[in-house]
Specification:
Elements lengths: L2 H26 L2 E7 L4 H10 L2 H4 L3 E8 L5 H10 L7 E7 L2 H11 L7 E6 L9 H5 L7 E7 L14 E8 L6 E7 L2 H13 L7 E3 L8 E2 L8 H14 L2 E2 H11 L4 H14 L2 E4 L10 E4 L2
Parallel strand pairs: 1-2, 1-4, 2-3, 4-5
Antiparallel strand pairs: 5-7, 6-7, 6-8, 8-9, 10-12, 11-12
């Protein structure tokens, strides 16, 4: 797998999500915190996005907390970018040298991250060991809170669900071999929708594609604004077979939270399944609204 292509995907996804998250968070609250663990050169790109919010920062506090083993060059660069932004004291950078696993809870306490809008980015794909679930759950102290966590190939993500009512995952891959696992947790539904929009909007790099961890066929999906529906079709049908009939709203929620797809993708797939006679709907006619009940044809 091309490590550079994977790095570009992760960087663009972070930037796109930050560009949506930062202004929304600053409109919502006077204090906003972004946490960048395992800090490396990607932290520069994140800081540039935050520096672009200079007009919104005035009269508010936007804080970046960077944590990493080697911040020797990174820290001064982040401070320089913040200083050139024109945001003044409203945009602050705090750096904490040391292992993210150990220092993250300390840093959150130091910057007063309780009950303020908070986004955490933890790229642990090349860490000596993945962070403990309790470390990631500490970020849920924000209100609302989000975390973008990246784990090494072959990792499992279910242990990280604690503290995150909304949770999804996607694999970055370019072959049949396991790829890095991208995990997103949130305490609010709009956050998850925003992440999914960013996920499918990134540019494809050097053949890197997505794989839905819930797809038993491990189908590779091209990154596209209109992704291939095959894996979602299989997962929706399997879900209906396991659980019986479900409303369109419930199926949209399943797609959003339990697959790599968006709620709107589920609506498109359901239309094709109904038209093909693969599933039945009740009532049998009219708009495919949220209260329409879907079941597998006997």
């Amino acid at each position: 797998m091309s490590s550079e292509a994977i790095a570009q995907i992760k960087r663009e996804l972070l930037v796109r999500h930050l560009e949506a998250w930062a202004p929304a968070a600053l409109h919502r609250a006077r204090r906003v915190i972004y946490v960048h663990g395992y800090a490396d050169a990607t932290a520069d790109a994140a800081m540039r996005v935050l520096a672009e919010q200079s007009d919104l920062v005035r009269g508010r506090e936007l804080t970046m907390l960077a944590i990493g083993d080697d911040l020797g060059e990174i820290g001064p660069r982040l401070s320089a970018i913040a200083g050139q932004s024109g945001a003044g004291a409203g945009l602050a950078v705090h750096t904490i040298p040391g292992a993210t696993e150990k220092m993250l809870p300390v840093g959150l306490k130091a910057v007063g991250a309780q009950r303020v809008p908070l986004l955490g980015f933890l790229d642990a794909a090349n860490a000596h060991e993945p962070p403990a679930p309790a470390t990631v759950a500490a970020l849920a102290a924000g209100k609302p809170a989000e975390v973008l966590l990246i784990l090494p190939p072959g990792s499992g993500a279910d242990s990280y669900r604690t503290g995150w009512p909304l949770f999804t995952q996607v694999e970055l891959a370019d072959s049949d071999e396991p790829g890095e696992l991208l995990v997103f947790g949130a305490t609010g539904g709009k956050s998850l929708e925003s992440f999914k929009e960013a996920l499918w909007a990134v540019d494809e790099f050097a053949g890197v594609r997505y794989r839905d961890p819930g797809d038993p066929d491990r189908h590779l999906i091209d990154i596209s604004l209109t992704p291939h529906p095959g894996p979602l079709r299989r997962e929706l049908l399997a879900y209906l077979e396991r659980t019986g009939s479900r409303t369109v709203t419930e199926l949209r929620t399943f797609a959003l939270t339990e697959t790599v797809y968006r709620a709107a993708d589920a609506t498109r797939v359901l239309h094709t399944l109904v038209d093909a006679g693969t599933v039945a709907r009740e009532p049998s006619h009219g708009r495919l609204g949220g209260d329409v009940v879907i079941s597998v044809q006997a």
